[in-house]
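Q: Could you write out the predicted structure for this multi-component system? I'm mainly interested in how the pieces pack against one another.
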Amino acid sequence: MSVYDSEELEKVVSSFELDGKVVSIERFGSGHINDSFRVVVNEGDKSYLLQRINHKIFPNVDGLMDNIDLVTTHLKSVLKNEVIDVDKHTLTIIPTKSGAKYQKDANGDYWRIFILLDGTKSYDIVETTKQAFAGGMAFGRFQKQLSTLDATQLVEILPNFHNIDFRLSNLRKAIEADRVGRLAEVGELLDYIFEREEKMRRILVMAQKGELPLRITHNDTKFNNVLLDQEDNVQCVIDLDTVMPGYVAYDFGDAIRTIINAAAEDEKDLNKVVLNIPLFQAYTEGYFSEAKDFLTEKEIESLWYGVLLLPYMQVVRFLTDYIDGDVYYKVHYTDHNLVRTNTQLKLVKELEGAEAQLREILSQSVVTPS
Ligand code: GN1
Ligand code: MG
């Protein structure tokens, strides 16, 4: 993780248009990609979220910020008919003093600031069915609100992001190169992954047949990317870096991956990686309460494939990064990516074991009004 001294950070912050004098700047959040800081000012009722954009991963910073601007402007225009304080329900970009959406510093790093929504809660592990239901509503509503934005205006900021063929091809390249000599440790995992290759291509196959509409999706629907208010009602969807055209099943599956797992994404004790099925049901009901009207039958059919695919895709991605020598995700200890791989793999196995039960809940939730 990069280290910054406070002078550097203050200098960066001073190029933005903030309401008040900066009192403190502290590390914030648990993202694997960008570096985040909370900036507190001495006036007004706002704090700010300062982020260093990881431009190795997002080389098109202009496209990235233009996407977020388009999306948040659209969401605000929809929200203004529904809520009083629009800025509490979607991200707000704070421009620099010269009116830009980000600031480049002398080291070539890119920085941006959003309003930080104080008084909200986010969860790495979901605790109650109320939270899970709210998460389902949040992402269902997000997709619904963006269904009226022209998808061709958005840049495909990370091409092939959820394309499993692309992810498996990257894994094969990593295996071939074996850059840091870790391949010997991962043999059995590879058998497991490649045995499931065809099964995990179902969404791609449906899409290739023209059965799935391309919509604007979030593409990083981890549960901690939903902010809930103090009473655990939906407040705001955050982390809009990967918003781009995609299939709804990807968002559904990635959310379920974090909701249904009773343990953390990187839990070392695999006995703790078990399914919390009531949370699955609650999320699904929350999601359908918002999304039922616009989803097609084929999209509804694809949701289950997303549930299996997204944890599997994380297995492939974490393992690729482990073999490559940890060049993509932040890691907090040597084997972190391997631990993440094993945790997600255990989750895929659990999901496969509960397939009949989970699919039954899915089809019940779509017909039951919530
Ligand atoms: C990364 O930004 P963050 O940490 O929420 C990753 C996601 C993964 C996630 C796994 C741009 O998200 O795709 O699902 O880690 N983001 C990118 O926790 O690769
Ligand atoms: Mg992210």
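A: Regarding packing and overall arrangement: The chain has two domains: 6-115, 129-367.
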